[in-house]
Design goal:
Layout lengths: L2 E3 L5 E2 L9 E4 L6 H9 L9 E3 L5 E3 L6 E2 L15 E2 L4 E2 L6 E6 L9 H18 L8 E3 L16 H12 L2
Parallel strand pairs: 1-5, 3-9, 3-10, 4-9
Antiparallel strand pairs: 2-6, 4-5, 7-8
Helix pairs in contact: 2-3
């Protein structure tokens, strides 16, 4: 798997005491080149660990051992594994215990077979490395943490992504 390094300055070193337990699927709301530029800009204050282009290319913005800034806001979460902060009666920042993968396109874009294949291969690789189950509880859409967004959009099938990732994980 070829991965192009496009380092982002927008991350926190380490993950505090957490380890990745889930992978969050995002849609870029634009192009891979535009996301490369945006994530490289310190003023954006956003990043993800990876980006997948429509032709299946993979870019890494932040090391998995560090905290990317992709899913830190929480609003009416549907994700059953979200962590609560007993001290504040709020939530522990999901960025600490998730890995974010952005995908080229918009919320109503159809994903290409190349995107599904590359994303699934990357998911299988990450899941193996961090012992993350490849299931619907651990591979989630951004909207399951932040319900105000429609991310990753209406046309992506996370179930299809999981199915392909399971096959990749057994290859």
């Amino acid at each position: 798997m070829d991965i192009t390094e496009i380092p982002s300055p927008n991350f926190s070193i380490g993950r505090r005491r957490y380890v990745p337990q889930a992978i969050v699927i995002h849609i870029m709301g634009g192009t891979l080149a535009g996301t490369d530029s945006w994530f490289s800009n310190p003023k954006s204050k956003v990043s993800a660990h990876y980006g997948i282009g429509i032709n299946g290319e993979i870019h890494r913005y932040v090391k998995e051992s560090d905290t990317a800034w992709h899913a830190g806001r929480v609003h009416d979460p549907l994700w059953p594994l979200i962590k609560r902060d007993a001290a504040s009666d709020g939530y522990i920042n999901p960025n600490y215990y998730t890995i974010g993968i952005e995908h080229e396109g918009f919320k109503d874009s159809e994903w290409t077979d190349s995107m599904y294949k590359s994303s699934a291969e990357l998911i299988a690789d990450i899941a193996s490395r961090w012992h993350i189950p490849i299931d619907r509880e651990h591979i989630i859409g951004h909207r399951e943490i932040y319900s105000i967004k429609s991310c990753p959009g209406s046309r992506v099938s996370i179930e299809r992504l999981i199915e392909i990732a399971r096959l990749e994980g057994h290859a």
